[in-house]
Design goal:
Layout (H helix, E strand, L loop, with lengths): L10 H12 L8 H13 L3 E4 L5 E5 L11 E6 L21 E4 L2 E4 L6 H15 L8 E6 L7 H4 L10 E4 L7 E6 L1 E14 L6 E8 L4 E2 L11 H12 L6 E7 L5 E2 L3 E7 L4 H18 L8 E6 L5 E2 L1 H13 L3 E5 L7 E15 L2 E12 L2 H17 L3 E8 L9 H14 L4 E5 L5 H7 L4 E4 L4 E2 L7 E3 H16 L8
Parallel strand pairs: 3-6, 3-7, 7-22, 8-21
Antiparallel strand pairs: 1-2, 2-6, 4-5, 5-24, 9-16, 9-19, 9-20, 10-14, 10-15, 11-13, 12-14, 12-18, 17-18, 18-19, 23-24
Helix pairs in contact: 1-3, 5-7, 7-8, 9-11
């Protein structure tokens, strides 16, 4: 179904991207693609190695006449974000991504495309397979679980790389080069609530928010997009002053690093209150839709019947809704030194309250990002506080450092020259409010110069993800030229 991709040019990179689309590879399920690439590399006569964490490293010798050039590390991650439309039946663990072209962009049918970071991986594979690209010794690093925790990079084996120049191919803006990124930390919350049944609640309804755009919790956090978790908690908190209800289920979001697109709550109510609830919700829907008409024009709020079940006590419900309402979400601070760059933010990514035997199990996951590591710690503490006050178990986990910019690096200077040669203009040098693996790998390999670049990708981490076809050819030409112009090893 993805064979049409091979008709695009440069064929070498699109052929590899088709392989990645055809092979399921959501986070935690990278084994199939890793095993395929391991065998593929060995069949081509290259050395392949899987480190204890599960990362794949492929080594390729320098091409003829380039043996005296610097070793270059090419890096990308194997996993992709698994997000689908509400009406999609796609199984990310078994089904290939179904791609199509529209107006010069590659899309996926009802799901994320996986161009993040599939196109970067495809470019590396195309270079490794090539017989006519001049390059020095190459060390290709394919990490796992980047989209969930950056575990692959965090646990990358030390001492297996010799290169001092790394090209990270996990950026999403043509004409830009990234030399720094935010660090981050997960806030994982859990608690078990005692449930109860109230005889006055003789009816049940399901309140659902759908149709939001969603997006990347770093790159899109400053766009004013609606977060379904935040909106639903807002509605429930305000509803407490209108009618009495019991909250028996709350499900929103799927990933800590994706802005939640859908959220659902099941409420136990008195049937006599249904007309009031419907009138109130119609009014609130108009208010919320007007607030987000520019960013989320398809925002929909629906009410449907549900099944009676156990619910939170009134005290536990009030405490939980207050804690969720108090949790930080969105931009916390803009950078005082970098124009129009978000310094610190938080995303209320996942919320779950569901029946578990004779109780209700609650969990939530928030992701804090910052260019300043101390601000990561501070905002994580802020996010932790309201949940601690209601006796939840709160764990600050998977912290990773930011990537400190080095604007005077020789690698960046070379990239500027190559970009001018290929594109005809100087690239924009940027710092990204997202978690690239450069900072983590750089901490393991001090002194390694790094940059990150890529083609145009929009809507990453959501089913609206798409990739501009023409920008892929430009991205490929820049990569090939960079490798061809790899400097000689400094004899000093």
């Amino acid at each position: 179904m993805n064979q049409w991709l091979e008709s695009l040019t440069p064929q070498a990179i699109w052929r590899q991207f088709r392989v990645l689309c055809d092979t399921p590879r959501p986070s935690f399920h990278e084994k199939a693609i890793r095993d395929y690439l391991f065998n593929w590399a060995e069949q081509l006569g290259m050395k392949a190695y899987v480190d204890p964490a599960g990362n794949l490293i492929i080594y390729k010798a320098a091409s003829a006449g380039m043996e005296d050039r610097e070793t270059v590390v090419l890096q990308g991650h194997l996993d992709m974000v698994a997000q689908r439309e509400a009406d999609s039946t796609h199984n990310f663990e078994t089904d290939p991504i179904q791609t199509y072209e529209q107006d010069g962009w590659v899309h996926a049918k009802g799901t994320t495309l996986g161009a993040d970071n599939g196109i970067g991986v495809a470019a590396i594979l195309a270079v490794l397979e090539s017989q006519d690209i001049a390059h020095g010794t190459l060390e290709a690093v394919f990490t796992i679980e980047e989209e969930t925790s950056l575990r692959g990079a965090a646990q990358l084996e030390e001492g297996i790389l010799n290169g001092k120049r790394m090209l990270n191919l996990d950026s999403e803006d043509r004409g830009d080069v990234y030399i720094g990124c935010a660090g981050g930390m997960d806030i994982n919350v859990s608690h078990r609530f005692t449930s109860e049944l109230n005889d006055k609640f003789d009816s049940a309804v399901r309140l659902t928010i759908t149709g939001l755009k969603g997006g990347h919790s770093g790159l899109d956090i400053n766009k004013g997009l609606a977060n379904a978790n935040v909106l639903l908690v807002r509605l429930l908190h305000e509803l407490t002053s209108e009618i009495e209800f019991g909250l028996s289920e709350l499900v929103g979001g799927t990933l800590r690093n994706a802005i939640a697109r859908d959220a659902t709550a099941t409420l136990q109510i008195a049937s006599a209150d249904q007309p009031l609830l419907q009138r109130w919700l119609a009014e609130q829907t108009q208010v919320i839709q007007s607030e987000f008409v520019d960013t989320d024009p398809n925002l929909t709020i629906n009410l449907a019947s549900a099944t009676n079940s156990a619910h939170l006590s009134s005290m536990a419900q009030a405490n939980l809704l207050s804690a969720l309402l108090s949790a930080p979400n969105g931009v916390h601070r803009m950078s005082p030194s970098l124009a129009d760059v978000v310094e610190t933010s938080c995303n209320l990514g996942v919320v779950r309250l569901q029946e578990d035997n004779d109780s209700l199990s609650f969990s939530a996951c928030l992701l804090v990002r910052s260019l300043v590591d101390s601000q990561t710690q501070f905002l994580a503490s802020v996010a932790k506080a309201p949940f601690t006050l209601i006796d939840c178990d709160v764990r600050l986990e998977n912290g990773y450092p930011g990537w400190k910019p080095e604007p005077e690096s020789t690698l960046l200077q070379q990239f500027d020259a190559v970009h001018n040669e290929v594109m005809g203009f100087t690239p924009q040098v940027k710092v990204i409010h997202a978690g690239l693996e450069c900072g983590i790998i750089g901490a393991k390999y001090p002194g390694m110069e790094m940059i990150s670049f890529g083609p145009n990708i929009r809507g990453a981490h959501s089913p609206s993800e798409r990739m501009e076809i023409s920008s892929v050819a430009e991205f490929w030409q820049i990569l090939v030229t960079l490798l061809e112009q790899t400097p000689k090893v400094n004899p000093a």
